[in-house]
Design a protein that fits this description.
Shape: extended
Strand order of the largest sheet: 1-4
Low-confidence stretches: none
Order of helices and strands: EEEEEE
Strand content: 25-35%
Largest sheet: 2 strands, parallel
Number of strands: 6
Number of helices: 0
Mean pLDDT: 82
Radius of gyration: 15 Å
Length: 64
């Protein structure tokens, strides 16, 4: 599951012995779509995991 307003579309992804782990947002979250990520192509023997970013990922430490 992603943040409200972020939609991940994996409908055009062709899977061969693969899986997608993605939870759909519930009906209670009616936030407008701010970002739509469309994943297309083909994947073999793998997985796609849709989740929130990890805590602290990409943050810089203060200089000092």
């Amino acid at each position: 599951m992603t943040r409200p307003g972020v939609v991940v579309d994996t409908g055009s992804l062709v899977l061969h012995y693969s899986k997608i782990k993605a939870r759909r947002a519930g009906a209670a979250t009616q936030a407008p779509v701010v970002l739509r990520v469309r994943i297309t192509g083909e994947i073999s023997f793998g997985q796609v995991v849709v989740r929130r970013p990890r805590r602290g990922f990409g943050r810089r430490k203060p200089a000092g």
